Each structure stands twice: as C-alpha cells, then as structure tokens.
Amino acid sequence: MTVNTLSLSEPLRDYFLQMALREPDILRQLREETSEHRVAKMSLAPEQGALLIFLLRLIGAKRYIEVGTFLGYSSIAAAIAMGEDSQVIACDVCEEFTIQAQSWWKRAGIEQQTKLYLDRAVETLPRLLEKGAAGQFDCMLIDADKPNYPNYYEYALQLVRPRGLIILDNMFLNGRVATPQASHPRSVAILHEFNRQLRDDQRVEHCILPAGDGMTILFKR
Questions:
Q1: Per-residue pLDDT tens for 177-201?
Q2: CA Rg, the chain, in Å?
Q3: Which residues contact 209 (CB under 8 A, 6 or more apart)?
Q4: Which residues pair with 118 in a beta bridge?
Q5: Degrees to nearest 5, angle at CA 35 with 32 and 39
Q6: Whole-number average pLDDT of the chain
Q7: Domains, the chain, with CATH or none
Q8: What is the C-alpha to C-alpha distance for residues 209 and 71, in angstroms, rounded to an integer?
Q9: What is the pLDDT of residue 78?
C-alpha cells in the first residue's frame, strides 16, 4: 500500500507558503497586481518560482530559455537567480501578454539581459539551433501549449547542456492526466502518455513534484 503524502489541509498549505517562500518584492508585486487577470493561473505559482530560483542558483546557471512567458513571472525569477551577467531568452506567441511582460522586465531592471522571440516556439527553437545554440543553455522551462510539449522537449535536449535542467509545468492538468477520458481535450491524452515517456527516458534523470499543477524536473545526462 502506498502512503498518501500529497494532501495538504488549508492551514498546512498556508503554513507551508509562509515558511517556504522568500519571494522577491518585484515577483510579489507582479503576482498580486495580476491575480485578477482572466488567465492568472497561467503564471507559475510562487512556490514554483522559489524552486526555479533555487535550482538555477544550485547549478550556477547563466543562460536560461523559456517557452511560454505570459506576464513575466518566470523570466524575472530566472534573471534574479542568475544575476546581471546572465541571459534570458523568452519565447511566446501572444503580443498582448508579452507587452505587459516587457513592462515588468523594465520595472525589474532586467530588460537589457532579456530577449523576446515573439513567434511560435516550434519555429523559434530550430532557428536557434541553426544559429549554433546547441548545448548553450543551462536550463529550459516549458510552460506553453500542451500538445507541443513532446516537440519542445526534443528541442530542449539539444539546446540544454549536459548536466543542465529541463523543467515542465502543468504536468497534471488539474488531475485529469491520471484518468484521461474521451471527453477531455486532446492535450490530456498527450500528457498522460508523455509523463510515462519522460519517466522511462534514459537520457535524463527524472523527478515530478506536486507543485502548482505538477512540475517535472529533468537533469540532462
């Protein structure tokens, strides 16, 4: 019998967040000011941001790329973690959201070290590889359109250096991946199978955490 270690009561969750977070002021401001946004849930949860900062500092990261930027929470967290002499590459397709992200980058003082590619990532990532970016990144975060996760992952394996990190968000899809149904969106079945593939992929060390909506952390061998 497997012991249930995932449940958090509301008081315990509040306590966890009080004890777990050292959220930088700029990230707290961004999170609070956009909490009522119509798709605020697209942003990393604060505990996920704290984990991202911890991991990037742990591996001494200086070059970071993300697929899915939204309003800038993850890109700002990465820039804070890596310091002024680092580079952040942000890939997104939504001009509306990234205009706001660029405003927050300026407020955070990271606009000079952050480059936005406003295009489909399945177009941007191969172009980066063609320009010699293979193995040039310490970490890649994937937090975008779910049906393309397997494609983004294969590009990540080329872009991220050995002993670098690949992080994927929303791997639980609100719990639906556990019991996919015919009535669910196609992305549910895709991630259900993709989670299994990642678990068994010997090119990486694998860890999946019940943080946010499910966060998978991969260490490239």
A1: 999 998 899 999 999 999 999 999 9
A2: 17
A3: 51, 215, 216, 217
A4: 92
A5: 150
A6: 94
A7: 10-220 (3.40.50.150)
A8: 24
A9: 98
> 122, exposed or middle or buried, with CB in 10 Å at 0-12, 13-18, 19+?
middle
| Whole-number Å distance between alpha carbons of 5 and 160 | 32
Distance from C-alpha of 91 to C-alpha of 67, rounded to nearest angstrom: 5
Report which residue type is found at 142.
Answer: I
Residue with tokens 């009535």: 183
Question: Which two tokens mark 81?
Answer: 């973690």
The two most distant CA atoms of the chain are separated, in Å, by: 53
State whether residue 151 is helix, strand or coil.
Answer: helix
Contacting residues for 39 by C-beta, under 8 A, at least 6 apart:
70
Distance from chain centroid for Cα 38: 20
pTM of the complete model? 0.95
CA dihedral 132, 200, 62, 68 (to 10 degrees): 80
Burial 169-198 (b: 16+ CB within 10 A, else e): bbbbbeebbeebeeeeeebbbbbbebbeeb
Structure tokens of 197? Answer: 């593939």
Amino acid at 104: W
The CA-based angle 131-133-134, given to 5 degrees, is 120
Q: Which residue has tokens 């991220």? A: 160
- Backbone phi and psi for residue 64, each to the nearest 5 degrees, phi listed first: -135, 140
Tens digit of each residue's pLDDT (9 = 90 or more) over 124-161: 999 999 999 999 999 999 999 999 999 999 999 999 99
